[in-house]
Automatic annotation (TrEMBL):
Domain of life where this protein originates: Bacteria
Keyword vocabulary terms for this entry: Signal
Gene3D superfamilies recorded: Periplasmic binding protein-like II
Record's keyword annotation contains Ligase: no
Ranges for domain Solute-binding protein family 3/N-terminal: 45-275
InterPro entries: Solute-binding_3/MltF_N
Name listed for the protein in its UniProt record: Transporter substrate-binding domain-containing protein
Cleaved signal peptide residues: 1-27
Keyword hit for Signal: yes
PANTHER family: ARGININE-BINDING EXTRACELLULAR PROTEIN ARTP, MEMBRANE-BOUND LYTIC MUREIN TRANSGLYCOSYLASE F
C-alpha cells in the first residue's frame, strides 16, 4: 500500500550508503557545473516530487521530518549523480504527485507509483522495480506456505479495500472451485493491524505489497517472514515524467545504466529488498 503507518517509519534506523542528504526542499547530489539532460525544470538540478510516507521506498529517517531516505530517495540521488547535477526533493502529498508533475513543478515522480494504464495515458514512465503482493507469516509456518493453494483453509489478513485483499478473494474463489476450503479473509483498516493479527495468532498469514512486506520483516525480526514466490509480482513501479517530455529518454537510459552497474541492486539491498526485483524489462 502507498502508506505505512507512522509507527513503522518511526522505528526505522536503516543505513544509508549513498552520499548526500535530503530535506523537504533540497539536497546535494553531484556537481551543478553540468546542465544535465535536456528538459530539466531547472538546469543543473534534478527536481523530483516525492511523498515520504512509504517505507522502505521513501520516508523520513527520524519519522516525521529531516532527511528523506529509502530506495526511491537514494535512487533519485544516484540518477542526479549519474547526470552530474544537484538533487532537489519536492515533498508532495500522494494525491498531488501527478498534478505537480503535470504543472511543471518537478521533472519526475520516483515514488512507488504503479505503471497503470490510466497513468500511462497521461505520463511517460520507465520501469524501475517489480511489484505485487506477498505473503507474510510466522517463521515456523513459512515452510508450509509454498504455493497459492497452501492458503486454502487458512485465515489471511489484508488491509481493507486493498488490491491485496482483492487478490486473496480471487484466490479463495479458486480454492472453492478446486474443491478446497475457502480462505478466511479478515480485513483491517490499517496495515499495522494486519501485522498484529498474525503476531497475536488471529490470522495465519497476511497479504501485503512486496516492498512494504520487506520493511515489515525488518521491523519484526524473528516474528515475521516472507513466504517466497507464493504470489506473482504482477506489476511494476515506474519513474514518471510528463508525456512526450524530452527528459523521458534520459530517465530511461539513466536507469538502465544504474541497473547495469549494480547501483540499483545495491540500494535495494540497503533497504532489505531483494535485489532481483530491480531487474525489469
Amino acid at each position: 500500500m502507498k502508506k505505512l503507518v507512522a509507527s513503522f517509519c518511526t522505528a526505522a534506523a536503516l543505513a544509508v550508503t549513498l552520499a548526500g542528504c535530503a530535506s523537504g526542499s533540497s539536497a546535494g547530489g553531484g556537481s551543478s557545473a553540468s546542465a544535465g539532460p535536456e528538459g530539466l525544470v531547472q538546469p543543473g538540478k534534478l527536481t523530483a516530487c516525492i511523498d515520504p510516507e512509504y517505507a522502505p521506498l521513501e520516508y523520513y529517517k527520524n519519522g516525521t521530518d529531516g532527511d528523506i531516505v529509502g530506495f526511491d530517495a537514494d535512487g533519485i540521488r544516484a540518477l542526479a549523480k549519474h547526470w552530474g547535477v544537484e538533487t532537489n526533493l519536492l515533498v508532495t502529498s500522494f494525491d498531488g504527485l501527478m498534478p505537480q508533475l503535470q504543472s511543471g513543478a518537478c521533472d519526475m515522480i520516483f515514488g512507488g507509483l504503479y505503471m497503470t494504464d490510466e497513468r500511462l495515458k497521461i505520463a511517460d514512465a520507465s520501469a524501475v522495480m517489480q511489484a505485487g503482493p506477498a505473503i507474510l507469516t510466522s517463521p515456523d509456518r513459512v515452510k508450509d506456505i509454498t504455493s497459492p493453494s497452501d492458503l486454502c483453509g487458512l485465515t489471511v489478513a489484508a488491509q481493507s479495500a486493498s488490491s491485496n485483499a482483492a487478490t486473496i478473494k480471487t484466490l479463495s474463489e479458486k480454492c472453492t472451485g478446486d474443491g478446497a476450503k475457502a480462505i478466511n479473509l479478515v480485513e483491517y483498516p490499517k496495515t499495522a493491524e494486519t501485522v498484529l493479527a498474525v503476531l497475536n495468532g488471529k490470522a495465519d498469514a497476511l497479504a501485503e505489497t512486496n516492498v512494504a512486506a520487506a520493511y515489515m520483516v525488518t521491523q519484526n525480526k524473528g516474528k515475521l517472514e516472507i513466504a517466497p514466490d507464493v504470489l506473482e509480482l504482477d506489476t511494476q513501479f515506474g519513474v514518471f515524467s510528463r508525456k512526450d517530455d524530452k527528459i523521458s529518454a534520459s530517465i530511461a537510459s539513466g536507469l538502465k545504466a544504474l541497473r547495469e552497474d549494480g547501483t540499483l541492486a545495491d540500494i535495494a539491498k540497503t533497504y532489505g529488498l531483494d535485489p532481483a526485483i530491480v531487474e525489469v524489462k
